[in-house]
User: Fold this.
Amino acid sequence: MAISVVMPALELAQETGKIISWIKKEGDPIRKGEPLVEIETDKVTFEVEAPGDGILAGVRSTEGDEVPVGRTIAWIVAPGEQPPAEAVSAAPAARAMTAGLPAEPVAQPVRPAAAEPTGRISPKAKRLAKELGVDLGKVRGTGPDGTITSEDVQAAAQASVPAVEAPAALGAIARLMAERMTQSWTATPHFFLVREVDAGAMVEMREKQAASNVTHTDLLIALVARVLLKHPKMNASWTGSTIQLHPHINISVAMAVKDGVVSAVIPNAASLPLSEIAVQRRELTERARSGHLRPADITGGTFTISNLGMYGVDEFSAIITPPQAAVLAVARISDRVVPVDGQPGIRPMLTMTLSSDHRVVDGAQAAVFLNDLAEAMQEPGKWI
Assistant:
């Protein structure tokens, strides 16, 4: 019996995936679990494994195609078996897109106005059409069975704009980040706590670990994870009706990439030695910059650290990444004049801002966590 190979969905917001390359070719023998095709989503590039044994047949999406989630891209059949008829019919292939928008305005043929669209419409497409003022009765759907997708609505809106000057299109990561941050900022009741900390002890510890290429971010990951053991509500999520405490402490680290930010995850960080945290963080950074993060690299985070100290930022606030309950924004370490034993002195100081979800924790609980973290940063040797 033929087995379909479909475009997988890694995230709720994902609508499409891009075919990067076929590892196996039409007619090749396949064994279950073998790498079959390389796919790119908004955040990661990964290999889809074969769901069964057989022969690869009925390949209907080529390299570079942007394919809607859930659409069949090929079949695995038994020797001598033919793929289902619809797999090799004249159905239109998924169109290739650049960040969901045409490279330049395209002249559209004039069509009679229709009161109602004839095909199916995705919920996201309906919302977008209302925002952009697009008449869905004049949009041709390119999704499965003629479904109108958000990309179709965007293309229709773009085509109606006078070709005076084409605006720069957002990349896939930038679009996803914009959508998620807007959702978080409007739906999550944020509150913010700011704390200034003497980072002298962290600077000394990093210097002692210089041979291991340990960074201040690595130290923060280790300290935050260990302090979270004392504060399980900071390592929790709001489910819509109740608070879910997570059994593991998985630290997400915000990383800048070409056209946005991704959060790569170090799982079970509270139980890892500092040297292992440093190794994992370096590997994640390399994969993020090369665009080859794996699905496991970006899933399961329970608390986020965003460090902009390397950019010379003195203080900032970060937006929570749902469904997490908090994010710690860390600024640069800089010498400042502060009281030292009752006298003016110069110390390396660091400002951090904790953003918390008020549905999960209250101000006092977040303040105690931040105080414990500040104390750990001033005596890291007792925690790491």
About this structure: Residues 174-382 form a domain with the Chloramphenicol Acetyltransferase fold (CATH 3.30.559.10). The CA atoms of residues 58 and 88 lie 6 Å apart. The radius of gyration is 25 Å. Residues 87-116, 163-167 have pLDDT under 50 and may be disordered.
